[in-house]
Structure formats: structure tokens, C-alpha cells
Amino acid sequence: MRSKLSHVLLASVAAAVTAQGASAADLPTKAPVYKAAPIVAWDWTGPYVGAYVGVGVSKSRSRDPNGNVLGDLEHTGYGFTGGGTIGYNYQLNWGLFGQKLVIGAEGDIGYFDTGHRTTDWDDPLIYNSKTSWLGTARLRAGLADGPNFNYITAGFAAANVRDINRDAVSGFEVSSSKTQTGWVVGTGVETMLGGGWSAKTESLYINLESGDTLANPANGLTIFTDKREFYTQRFGLNYQFGAGKNGPLPQTNWNGLFVGGVFGGASSSISGSGIDRGSNPAGTAEIGNNGTGFTAGGQIGYNWMVTPKWVLGVEGDVSWLGIDHMSNDYFNVVGGNSGTPSALGSKASWIATARGRIGYSTGPALLYATGGGAWVNTKDTLFASSILSSSKTLSGWTVGGGIETAMWTNWSMKTEYLYVDAGRGDTLTDVVNGFSIAADHKYHLFRSALTYRFGGNPLTSRY
Question: So what's the pLDDT on residue 337?
Fold first, then answer.
């Protein structure tokens, strides 16, 4: 019975197949169906426009071009910057370590305020080096890991600068306003937000040409700005045109403990003020000190994802801070002009911060603001007829922001800016000659950090 049933089933199947084949042979041939090619999930190719805000820092120096007056005027201004951006990216089909190479060109122009009006120590001179706008035209190149793009950039820079030499007694002023050109170099990170939008932060160093010679007959002093440098940290929002900007964003688990290393550059905006031996009112005259250096150290912290998009955290870090700079006061020299301060030295050896942070998770990146306490170990030195110095750990506050991007497994990279106000150092007093000075310590940190997050796999999907 079983054998007979098997034969019947086989015969039925064979008949059905034969009938289907015969029936299909009688039907007209159908045109083939073609499927649309899939869109690359994250393609950076295309034009973009955007806007940015941030901070600008001036690191300029003026002196007497004729050598009749020795010493320097160091400008320590900083302020707000904001403007617009336009550019074009092209993503290549090859790269390194599984990432795609992206090249592009970008132009921007915006408001740039780094002015700081200063009365020179012990002299009837009020000087300023004011900027009103900054524009750049740059190339950039980097590696894109899906929606995250890390890049370097360099190119042309131009800014409008106004230098001022004013007599502190009569108020008579000699000034020069002109557009000065130079070059720019920097690094940055940009991350897709979805819907064609992206967020970025970048650090730029700008070097511009020298200024005009300003001779003021009222105070008898001549100044010439022979060194003009700026730093700026920008936070921007871009809109990318074209396909490939709307792929699904992989989600990151930012929860848990993390440790890492921090490294980057630092610039100081230090000014010494007090009672000089001239006619300037007490506390109005300054000696500027704008040193730069490298910083590197370690950090530890903890994140809580309070919602799928919002992250709260705490972190602390301790870093070496290699800033050691002496500024020779204008119209004075070390060891000369008995009884007058001739140079201000400031050395920072380490910096520590303890901060909270709040961030918005895009999935592959965390956009955050941060703030808290700061401590800087400093040594201030006043060179005059004698050498006066003070070493101490100053305490103050810090505020900043950055972008942290997920890389591979539990690793991520941070790019951040911190403004640090460490407060006022000890007053250095020369009792014999009747003057005193104390330095205000402000620092700008342009840092990156490589961090490892403990816990499970931070990515629920890959690009």
C-alpha cells in the first residue's frame, strides 16, 4: 500500500511540473524586472552650507621698529566669533582601516572680535589690536567612518585689523585699519545628524602679516605689530545637499565608566596689573603675557544615559601644562631702568579639572557642554632691579564644549575646547621702589582625547 501511494504522489508531482512547464511555454515572455541600485548609506560627496559660533584668541606682539625703545607689547585679547560657511566634499572609494578618504574645499567669513584695550605698564600709552572679521579659504582632507568625519585643513586667511596707539594723558590717537592676509591650519571633526544635517567642531591657527608703524607725537612712542597670531575654536551646523545623507544612524551605549588620555595645545591670556611708578591710575596698567605650549595627561569619568538621546556625566583630568613664557615690558629691558619692572614671567606646570557635562547623543556621536572647577600650578616672576617670584596652585573655574565620536568596539575620540579662569596670583611687591603687580591667569585649551568605555558593545549596529 505504501509503495503504491508513493508511486501515486511521485506521478502527481511529475504531472504538475510538466503541466506548469507546458503552460508557461504557451505564455508570452515577460520583460525582466530591474531593481534600483541601493543608495550608499553615508556618502559625504556634495555641496554644503552652514553657520558657526565660537571663540577667538589673539596672540600678537608690538615693538619699536627703530630699536629706540626696547621691550614688547603683548596683546592678550579674546572674544566671540560667528559666521557662515560654504564648501564641497568628495568621497573616494578607498581609504585606510576600513574608512573612506574625503577631500574638499571650504570658505567662510564671519565676525571675529579679539580686541583688548590696554594701558602699558609705567608708560603713557594705551594700545589695542582690534579685529572685526575673519575669512578663510581652505582645503580639507580626512577619513570618514560612516557618519563621522575627522579631518585636517589648511589654506588662506584674511582679517580686518585695527591697531591703535593712544596717548594716555591727552587722548590723542594714531591708528591704522587694514585687511591683512596670511595662512591658516587646523583640525576638526564632523558628524551626520540625519536628514542632510551635520555638526562639527574645529580648531584653527591663523598667522597674519605685520601691521603699519604707528608714531604718536603726543606720547613720543612708536609701535609696530610684527607678530600677529590667532587661535579659534568653532562649533558649526552644516546642511549637506545630495543623496546618501539620510542613512540610519547607529546607536551608541554611552553608559558607564570611561578612562582615557588627553592631549593638545594651550594658550595663555595672562595680564599683570597693580601700582606702577608712572602716572597711570592704580590697577589700570598691564604687562601682557601670551605664552603657548603643549598639554597631555589622563582622565576618568562616568556617563548616565537618562533618555535614549540625553546623557549626563562627570569627569576629572590631570595634565601636564607646558607653558613657560617671559614678556619683556615695552620701554624696559631686563636689568635696566632701575626701580621699574622690566619683564613678567609666568610658568604653568600642571592643570586639573573636575567637571560635569550634559550631552545630546546623535547615535554615533555625543555633542556636549561641560563646566566645573579648575586648578593650575603656576609660578609668576617679576624681573626688575631684583627678582620677585611666587609659586602656588590657583583654583578657579572652566567651561567649554566638544564632540565625542564612537570609533571601534568601546573606543571613542573627543575634540573639545576649555576656557579656564584660574584667578589672580600673589601680589609681588617691591617695597624699596614702591610698585606692586599681580597676574590674572586665563587659559585656552584645544584638546583631543582617546577614551575607552567599559561595559557592553557600545554599537547596536555598524555603518
Answer: 46
**Domains by residue range for the chain, with CATH:** 43-247 (2.40.160.20), 249-463 (2.40.160.20)
What number is the average pLDDT over the span 301-317?
96
Tell me what pLDDT residue 278 has. 66
Sign of CA dihedral 383, 122, 280, 211: negative
More confident residue, 96 or 225: 225
The residue that leads in pLDDT, 252 or 430, is 252
Query: Bridge-partner residues for 374, per DSSP?
Result: 353, 396
pTM of this prediction exceeds 0.90:
no
> Does residue 295 register a pLDDT over 50?
yes
Work out the average pLDDT over 189-212.
93
Residues in the chain: 463
Q: What is the mean pLDDT of the chain?
A: 85
